[in-house]
Amino acid sequence: MKYSGLRCCIIGLVLASMSGWATAASSSAKAGLECGFGTAGISFLACKLSGKSSKECAEIGAGVGLAGALACSLYAKHLEARRKELAGKENDLDAQIHYVQGLNADTQKLNADLTQRVTSVTQDTDKLVAKIAQQQITQEQLAKERKNMDDLVKTSQSEVTQGTQALEEAKQFRAQKSGSSAKLDSAIAQQEQLLAEAQRQVDQLAAQRARV
C-alpha cells in the first residue's frame, strides 16, 4: 500500500510538471501537440517553431517534414478557419473588413513567433559556428543541424507565403466591390506591413542558415 501510494504521488507530480510545461509552451508548440506528432510528443520542427533552442527540441522528439509542420502550424490553421468563415460572404463589406482584421491579428502573432525563432536560431548558430571552428562536431551531426535549419526556414517561408496569398484574395474581393472603404483599405495596408516584417524575419533565419 505504501509503495502504491508513493507511485501515485510520483505519477501525479510528473503529470503536473507536464501540464505546467504545456501551459507555458507557445501556441505553435501546442499546435504540435494537437496534431499528435508520434509518441515522443512535439516534433523537433514544431518545437523550433515555438522559439525553443535546438537542445530543448532535440530532447522533445524527432523531426518532421515541411508538410507535417505546416499541417500543425497555428497560423495556417487560423488562415484556413478565416477563409471558411468568409465563404459565401465575399461581397459583404463588413465580412471583408472582419476577414482582413483577422489576418492582421494572426500575422501579428506570427511575427512574435518569428522573433522568438530568430533569437533562438541565432543563439544556436553562434554555438554551432564555434563548434565547427573547434572541430567539436561530426559531419553527420552538422548535416542534421543544417537540415533542421533548412526545415525551419522553409516552414517559416511557407507561412508567410500563405499569409500573402490570403491577402491577395482579400484584394481581389476588394477590387470587385464598388465604392470606397477607408476601414478596409487601412486593414489591407496594415497586413502588407505585417507581412513585410514577417518576410524580413524569415530572411534573418535564412541568413543564420547561410552561416553554416
DSSP summary, beta strand count:
0
Mean pLDDT: 78
Radius of gyration: 21 Å
- Structural category is mainly alpha
N-to-C order of helices and strands: HHHHHHHHH
C-alpha geometry = elongated
- Give the termini distance in whole angstroms: 56 Å
- Largest sheet features: none
Helix content: over 70%
What can you tell me about this protein's structure?
By secondary structure, the chain is an all-alpha fold. It has a domain of about 150 residues. Helix content is about 80%, strand content about 0%. The chain has nine helices and no strands. Helix 7 packs parallel to helix 9 and helix 8 runs antiparallel to helix 9. The longest helix has about 40 residues. The chain is elongated. The chain starts with a helix and ends with a helix. The N terminus is likely disordered.
Short structural description:
The protein is mostly helical and 212 residues long. It contains nine helices and no strands.
